Amino acid sequence: MARRFIDLHTHSIASDGSDPPEVVVRTAAAQKLAAVALTDHDTLSGIAAAREEAERVGIDFVPGIEIAVQDEEGELHLLGLWMPEPSQRMREALDLLQHNRRKRNQAMLDVLAEQGMPMSMDEVRACSGGEAVGRPHIALAMLARKYVATRREAFERYLGWGARAFVARELLTPEQGIALLRDEGATVAVAHPCLSPAMTPERLDDTLSDFRAKGLSAIEAYHSVHTPAQVRLCVDLAARHNLLLTGGSDYHGRNKEGIRLGSGSGGLRVPLLALDRLRAFRKSQGLWV
Ligand code: AMP
Ligand code: FE
Ligand code: FE
Ligand code: ZN
Question: What is the chain's alpha carbon radius of gyration, rounded to the nearest angstrom?
Fold first, then answer.
């Protein structure tokens, strides 16, 4: 049977997933998906291995990235799809994001130490793939030290937004983030726009007009945590703002329980048609596919 579904949002150990990039791709092929994108946070270091495996197993592969941006209203995530070999400018930007991560991670470790939970950065790094290290790895290190019983407890009590050891990381503005991805020739989508409880339909409407003017091309309507009503809202807003649709599971392997590659928490289906339309749009702009 022809493969009809895709997953354009996944994470590997290059950021905060648990699977090596090649395993992410192999899992997508085993799920009989037509295509998969690797979209690690703030790094492209998993792309080469993922692409090689995709060629080997015969699945369509889209190299991607996810970066967080922040304006006065809060944080939103962007997906860059069809990321090329990084330019000098992109390498510098990713170095800066990693630098900001290290600074923030150390500040969080300092707070935790003050609260009687000392840990070294090496311990935290050991819980990661060594690239985009962040809060999920701090949570794993806390678990290893038995400071918490579950990762959930680590986020709820210490690491989550506004919790005791939370320190914000310096993020790009939407304008900077969109331009960074666009200038590489990537197609920019806003990731899981309904995930934040602070995001109302009115605010999303405003955000989309604003982001579209800055170079946004698509909206991630299909996502593991979007309800059917939220999917409909995104599809309607996409039509209204002349944006394309994308979707994915936001798979993190063992690091996000209950989310399966391709099908999310069970009901997710991202149609291949979305990818066909993204490709047609890129071709119309003279961009590679
Ligand atoms: P960071 O990029 O280091 O700030 O960490 C953000 C990552 O932590 C997200 O991409 C999620 O994978 C994970 N995360 C954020 N909030 C939670 C939470 N409440 N519980 C579990 N994981 C979370
Ligand atoms: Fe993540
Ligand atoms: Fe995200
Ligand atoms: Zn993600």
Answer: 18
